[in-house]
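Per reviewer request, we include the raw input and output of the structure prediction for the construct analysed in the revised manuscript.
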Amino acid sequence: MSTQADHGNELIPRPELNPDALRAALAVVAPGRLDEMQTMKDEAFAKAVEWQSLSPVQSWVLIWAKEIEIARRPDLSTRYAQAQSNLEHEDPAIAWEALRELSAVVDEAMKAVRE
């Protein structure tokens, strides 16, 4: 596990950016998503072979690192869930703010995993 800034009440430490560490972390913070992760991993590796490029695998690692970062940090997961619940709000201003907040959460998570 890597070192990171303390965001308080993190469920687990931030995992290393490799498939085994990401899978182990997801098994703790969101075990119901393991099949989804495996399906995406299989697709990424198939594309990597087809394209003769590691970019699909690198993208898969970043996608799941981001998902785990959000799930492992209650501050981010709460903000994310609240924003998602307002995405289809009848008031366009509330829906727009929800979209902005989702983007901010994703940006914060991606910044954290790239540290």
